[in-house]
Each structure stands twice: as structure tokens, then as C-alpha cells.
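Human: I would love a firmer grasp of how sequence relates to backbone shape in proteins. Take your time, and here it is.
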Amino acid sequence: MDTIFAPASGRTKAGVAVIRISGPQAAAVLKSLSGDLPPPRFAALRELRGAEGLLDQALVILFEKGASFTGEEVVELHLHGSQAVVAAVLSELSNHSGLRMADPGEFTRRALENECLDLAQVEGLADLIEAETEAQRKQALKVLSGAIGDAASNWRLDLIRAAALIEATIDFADEEVPVDVSPEVADLITGVQSDVQKQLSGIDVSERIRDGFEVAIIGAPNVGKSTLLNALAGREAAITSEFAGTTRDVVEVRMDLGGLPVTILDTAGIRDTEDYVEGVGIERARARAKDADIRVFLCENTSDDPGVDFLDGDIRLMAKADLHNGADNAVSGKTGAGVSNLVNHLRDVLVLRSASASIATRERHRIAMSRALTSMESARFELSLGSERSELAAEELRTGIRALDALIGRVDVENLLDEIFTSFCIGK
């Protein structure tokens, strides 16, 4: 296998820049640069020299095979963070025979191939790198720590036990089996089904934490939606004017509410119109509002028809609180009245919803667990038909086990790997 190298830190000026080298020649390359090798996993100050002389004074760390991120022999060079220093060291490394620049995500891919990480942990690492809020950080760390793999392993062991019990009755069909295994098999399947179903029910929330919740501000034209969006954003994110129909498209502002990623949507005012462009904007507003997690309805009068169905959890507020003598259910983006109350309410609602999040975070996880659940239900059905269907029940359980194996990347995921790793930066 090639020895690969790449910057593992940002490409801008910094106090320290890190270059990572992984593969069978990593230690030999370090020795050629520094003259000797430090003890494994101990940082040591060394002068790095190349064909043109001194490259830099750097802290170097050697990780032995089996004791590194990739599972291979790994060297980290902690350099001064000058772009010129990094470029000089990368140029020197590129001149070494058998070394090449790493592809995007190649270090992590080697960690997967060397069984240092499972596929779910790889996805957790990708999410951790992209995390912008505290909730995203915590969720990604949980996945990276192996929570999905641990759960899948426990479920897998229970299903293997259940399948083994069924197969024992098949093997000894002509003999008298002293114990009826049906109750234990049923309990094992029921327990796994319950756990998997619980995780399935929370995936929508997990995906929202990863990708962001959406809150749509909707109402009639010129009711103050854009002004409220600007007040929430703390900047002029949307154009405001006294003319109705100014907003023709959906304007999005990303925010951090209580550690949760939230996108606030300012939508076109909903009304009947003959203007084609405005009509397109209104249809987009209806579509985005339908899919949003929470809708904030701004109305000038309590009897106003917002033009979109009101659902549980939606918020109805009187617009232009400065004209309503500070009513409790009123808000004004112009004066700021009620804005803090709205932010606090949105935060509390979304924090409460996020409490039901699953350890699983992606559609791929949903598909694998749904397949496992379907197989377990089929196994229960086959068992209910009597002992002559035991072989079919055991096969359904084996199908469920394979679905759980796919969850953590043991089988049937080769076609996904290129897509997953291209989302990583070079050096990770």
C-alpha cells in the first residue's frame, strides 16, 4: 500500500500546521528528514532537513502500526504555520519515492479498512468536522464514539441467539427436545424490535439536528415578516419596504438557538395575485411552510386567514406589536418588542423535540434498521405457523442480521464508500 501524506490542518496562516504521513514508509521518511526517530507516541523537537537544507524546526510524533488513527504507521509533523513552510515540506515529501498526496478522506478510509472505525463512526466523524452548534457536536461525538455500532452488536447477538435456538430445534427435529425454546426466541426478537423501533422513531429529529431545523415566517404581504427576520438575524438579511409583495422568493438565515442549528425562512406574502413571478414565490412559500418544523404566523387581526393550515406546535402572533399596545402575543421586528420571547419559545420547543433524537442520524441508517425490523416481523410470523416453518423463520433472522451488519458497514456498502469519502477534505 502506498504511503500517503497531506496537511491535516487548515491552509491559512496559523501558529501551527500539521502534516500527516501514513503507510509503511512513514517512519523511514521521518528518519530521512530528522536523522533519528523519537520514542513512539512522544512529541520530540527535531530539525527537518531536505535536499535544499533546513526546512523547519518541528514537533514530530511517531505512531506505531496498530496504535494510530489509520491503523498504519503514522507520522505527524507539527510545523510553524507559515504557508511557505508547509509548501516546502510538502514539496520535499513529494520527491520521496513511494509517497503520494492523499485523496480526500483517504486517511479515514484506511481507518475503516483497517477496522479502526466502522462505517457509522466514519459518518460521525464527517458530521463532527461539519458541526456548527453544540447539539451537532454532541450528536456527532456520540456516533463517532461507536454508539450505533455498540447497539447494532447487541441486537445482532440477540438475533444470532434466537436463530441458533430455532436451528437447534431443526437439527433435533427427530428427537425429543427437552425445552420449548419458543418463549425465549419470542422474547429475544421482541426486545430487539422494541429497541430498533425506538431508534427509528427518533431519526427524523436526529436528521434535523444534523441538517438544521426550519422555522418559516408566513403571513399576508407587508405584515412585517422581513422586518422580523432581520431582527432575528441581527442584520439586513431581507429587503423591506412599504410596498406589498417585495419578497418574491424564500430568504434563509442560519442561526444557533440553544445549541441547535435553525434556519429561519422569510417567505413571500400569501395572497391572490395575477403577477406570475409573485405567484411562483407564493407557491414556494406554501411548499417551504408545509415542510418546516415550526411556522410562525404573523397576522394583523386574529381573524386573518394565513392561507396555510395551522398545525400543533405552530405559533400565531399579532404583527406590529408597536401598534397593539404591547399585547403578550404580539411581536415587532421594528421595535424589537416580543422578539426575545419568540426566540426563547422557539428554543424551548426545539430543545424539547431534540430530546427524542435517535443515535442513528442518516437515511442509510433508517433503511438498514427498517429492513431488520421487517425481517424480524417476518420471522415472528413464520414461527406463529408452527415448527414446520422454523427454517424460514431462521432465514428471516439471518436476513435481519445482515441488515444490521450493513448498518455499520460490514456488508453491502461498497457502492456508498466513494460518495461518503468525497465529502471529506484532503488530510482527513
About this structure: Residues 147-171 form the longest helix (25 residues).
